[in-house]
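Give me the fold.
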Amino acid sequence: MRKKEVNQIIEVPKGVDTGNTVRIPGKGANNGDLIVLIEVGSHPYFRREGYDIHTTQLVTISQAVLGATLEVMTIDGKKKIQVRPGTADGTIIIITGGGIQKRHIQNGSRGNHCVHIKIKIPTSLNAKQQEAMKTYGDLEDPIDPKNNV
């Protein structure tokens, strides 16, 4: 195999990933095929695993406890998701079909978008917030050490 530098605009098919190749007929050495090795860069917000996209969404304590409708950024733009009441830290909310186009499937099948919920615990509270948390603490059921998993 011989390497040479080629300046060529190519169309990259949907769904390609690092390590995939794209063949450009007639653009290689001696009018042979040019083989382009794909390397997909990272993104500061989206993380790709196969055809699935993963993101992390911060939620407040009250949103996790009471539930909320949130707007999250997806590869298709903003989408609304439902955080159910009682959502735990680490819960994954799936946006079905919100991932990467599957490369060799013609029916438009896509991976999923997995939204990882992370509860933001405040590091400082104002006086009203402290009083509200104390009031809640007085009302909540204590945790039985035998049930602590």
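The chain has a mean pLDDT of 89.
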